[in-house]
């Protein structure tokens, strides 16, 4: 790159659940000020109408590395590229792969802008299920072996964490939530409070609260986020709430 050439930049942007008004200001301004929007075509479709003057680069599912290379090649020409991800770019997002791939593009600057991941936006819809310690586990075995996922489920259950499950089911993994519930039921009560949120922040959003025994037989898809409470989680007025222990602290603290 010559001395007079503009240094290109990729900003990896977490856009949150998908609705424009649920982005952070920082995320919105990054897209507003970029030259190019790159990303998985489903996520780009959520924002491109708001930014009609931007060049668009998309690929389909399972072409993540190609997507990163296309974005980096564009940035290498001096463009500012907003590489968008749903939720948060660093939570099952593309920030890590961008950094790995960018080792071959040393002149490109990388920045990551956080977004609201589904664990947080979904929790807000259900009430307050994640007030105490929690574990976030994906049931997709594309990148992680099913044996390791099973181990993580067991360890989270034994630790009495509230648990959030991403990617709970797909056409090829139609019974994975059922399998996960069976593993959790080895340790947890069948009456443990659970919830699901589907299409968070989008048309057709749905929330439901179940017991763990009921959740086992619920049909979900890749647009569903699943919440399993810990031993203290309860239903309060139709919401899923995990106390943090403030009432207990008041009882034991002298003033």
Blueprint of the fold:
Elements: E1 9-14, H1 25-32, E2 36-40, H2 41-47, E3 55-59, H3 64-76, E4 80-85, H4 95-101, E5 109-113, H5 118-126, E6 127-128, E7 134-138, H6 146-158, E8 162-166, H7 176-184, E9 193-198, E10 206-211, H8 212-215, E11 224-228, E12 234-236, E13 239-241, H9 246-252
Parallel strand pairs: 1-4, 1-5, 2-3, 2-4, 6-13, 7-8
Antiparallel strand pairs: 8-11, 9-10, 9-11, 12-13
Instruction: State the distance separating the first and last CA atoms.
Output: 66 Å
What are the low-pLDDT stretches, counting only 5+ consecutive residues below 50? none
Number of strands: 13
Gyration radius (Cα, Å) is 21 Å
Give the C-level CATH assignment of the largest domain: Alpha Beta
So what's the overall shape? elongated
Secondary-structure-based class equals: alpha/beta
Number of helices: 9
Strand content of the residues, in percent?
15-25%
Major pleated sheet: 5 strands, parallel
CATH topology-level fold name of the largest domain: Methyltransferase, Cobalt-precorrin-4 Transmethylase, Domain 2
Helix content: 25-40%
Question: What number of domains?
Answer: 2
The overall pLDDT average reads 93
Strand order of the largest sheet: 3-2-4-1-5
Q: What is the N-to-C order of secondary-structure elements (H for helix, E for strand)? A: EHEHEHEHEHEEHEHEEHEEEH
